[in-house]
Amino acid sequence: QVQLVETGGGLVQAGGSLRLSCAVSGRPLSDYAMGWFRQAPGKERNFLAAISRSGRTTYYIGSVKGRFTISRDNDENTAYLQMNNLKPEDTAVYFCAASYTTRDDRYIVASYEYNYWGQGTQVTVSS
Predict the structure, then answer these.
(1) What is the bridge-based pairing of β-strands 45-51 and 58-60?
(2) Which of 64, 89, 121, 126 could form a disulfide bond with 6, CB atoms 3.0-4.6 angstroms apart?
(3) What angle do CA 121, 103, 58 make, to 5 degrees?
(4) Residue 6 host element (H or E)
């Protein structure tokens, strides 16, 4: 059984930074492509960023590109989302997700391709 636990959320002022962590247990992180999603109140869960299992390939949606950085440490079984220059519209519950793949450099955007999800961590950005 694979478990994902997100930490690092909190309250921050606009322009500030947070670093989210996603600790994976049960299977080696290196077996999985990873992604980050978020869900604002009353809205659907949306894709933000993805990283291949090798870490060599990443992908971001336009609204976070240049502000957010996805990374991973396979030795520590942890994925990260560094978020800089946060805006009030970034307020949401943030989720990490893992997708089993045999392809080292494949990143995954579609939520239905992710096998495991964390419970989420709240990020609130005040203006």
Answers:
(1) antiparallel
(2) 121
(3) 45
(4) strand 3-7
